[in-house]
Amino acid sequence: MNIFSMFSRRTSAPVARERLQILLAHERGGTTCNADLIALLQKEVLAAIAKHIDVDPDKVQIKMERRDEVSLLEIDVEIPTPSPKGGKPQDKTAPEIRTTSRVASQRAGRAA
Amino acid sequence: MAEVMVVTSGKGGVGKTTSTAALGAALAQTGQTVAVVDFDVGLRNLDLIMGAERRVVYDLINVANGEARLHQALIRDKRIETLYLLPASQTRDKDALTEEGVKRVIGELRERFDWIICDSPAGIERGATLAMKYADLAVVIANPEVSSVRDSDRIIGLLDAKTEKAESGQRMEKHLLLTRYDAARAGRGEMLSVEDVLEILSIPLLGIIPESEEVLRASNVGSPVTLNNAASAPARAYMDAARRLCGEDVAMSIPMHRKGFLDRLFGRRAA
Ligand SMILES: Nc1ncnc2c1ncn2[C@@H]1O[C@H](COP(=O)(O)OP(=O)(O)OP(=O)(O)O)[C@@H](O)[C@H]1O
Ligand SMILES: [Mg+2]
To answer: Whole-angstrom Cα distance, residue B33 to residue B240?
Structure first.
């Protein structure tokens, strides 16, 4: 708790400042964490998995969380439960492979 | 059945993005599923106003061009689970968006959501016409001042000519949302009154959103004003507007300014 949080109802500007600093550092950095890089990572990760299992591209979730020092890229891949011999395909309670990559963000200025 | 609603104005900076976020959150709070879609390619801001700017991976153009699936680009709101954002691209130029691509994305959104709210860019160029193209209804945002009202009139003309609905001979449903309404200045005759604007534009009034510092405060922290301070005057006005969109009959009151000491002392009147 600091002196500012006592007035946090009234002072929202510091929050705005912090959010903008993080956002702009990422946007100016340009090359990391943009859609092209993420698309490439997604493609290669999925290709590696697909060598071993069939992956339905509709069952792949990609999430991003940009943070101050690092960004978190999550690739969730749903893999169908193999049907038991002779039986009907089981229900869709599939295990998940979760690939979480920490992508160092290119932060200009401000060191850790 | 899904409703595709464009939030548009012609003039810039009148409150389209603020209204898209506020109405989207208000509708989603009733349990309906809502997607807010940013059409402001190259100058996206809806992600910031919704507080989702750090979570953008893919965008409208990626989906429209088949580079990503819709469900991969949709960002689920952290506060309301029926609310989703489809961001705009920040890096590509707006010519990357095609009519066919937008049509397909809107079609896919229709299958998943009760409301699809398209935040239009300012102007009357490609971005604005694409945002309205496949809409079922429009919310026209105007501020009570001459240039905004004139531009709204222009946009109403486009809604009646350039949308798929208009082109197929149907009537485009249009509603006026008067934003940044300053009751004190309207009372002193310094700003166009609600009646003036309604008489000029002659489309039904969806709501009057007062000028309020709560809007800036909500944008600072990345929360639609209807969520950030639900009891505030602009939040309540947006919630009433959302109920009217759902067909409820909600009484409309024109914000009045109670004359203060100085007003009475000087009996201020404007030209
Ligand atoms: N009711 C209000 N009271 C006070 N400020 C407001 C209100 N509505 C909007 N604003 C402010 O007006 C500015 C423009 O709002 P907003 O970004 O929503 O407009 P816009 O129409 O989306 O703009 P653009 O045309 O650039 O996309 C913002 O700074 C916002 O905080
Ligand atoms: Mg905007």
So the answer is: 18
Q: Minimal CA–CA distance to B187: which of B258, B237, B252?
A: B258
Encode pLDDT of B173-185 as tens digits.
999 999 999 988 8
Distance of CA B47 from the midpoint of ligand 2 (Å): 10
SS (H, E, C) chain A: CCCCHHHCCCCCHHHHHHHHHHHHHHHHHCCCCCHHHHHHHHHHHHHHHHCCCCCCHHHEEEEEEECCCEEEEEEEEECCCCCCCCCCCCCCCCCEEEEEEEEECCCCCCCC
**Nearest CA to B51 among A79, A65, A109?**
A65
- Please, are residues B84 and B74 in contact by the beta-carbon 8 Å criterion? yes
Over the stretch B87-97, which tens digit does the pLDDT of each residue have? 998 877 778 89
Give, for B118, the enclosing helix (H) or strand (E): strand B115-119
Flag if A35 and B220 touch (Cβ within 8 Å): no
pLDDT in tens, B117-159: 999 999 999 999 999 999 999 999 999 999 999 999 999 999 9
Which residues are CB-neighbours of B64 under 8 A, at least 6 positions away? B97, B98, B101, B102, B104, B105
pLDDT beneath 50: ranges in chain A: 1, 5, 31-32, 86-92, 105-112
Query: Rounded to whole angstroms, what are the CA distances from B148 to A29, A63, B198?
Result: 37, 39, 13
Q: What is the pTM of this model?
A: 0.86
Could you read off the pLDDT of A30-53 as tens digits, one per residue? 644 566 777 788 778 888 888 888
One-letter amino acid at B194 equals: V
Q: Do B72 and A60 touch (CB under 8 A)?
A: yes
Q: Hey, CA dihedral for A59, B38, B170, B28, is it positive or negative? A: positive
CA distance B51 to chain A (A): 9
Atom from ligand 1 closest to the CA of residue B213: 4
Would the CB of B11 count as within 6 Å of ligand 1? Answer: no
Chain A within 8 Å of B54 (Cβ-Cβ)?
yes
**Could you give the C-alpha distances from B238 to B21, B34, B49, B241, in angstroms and in order?**
10, 15, 15, 5
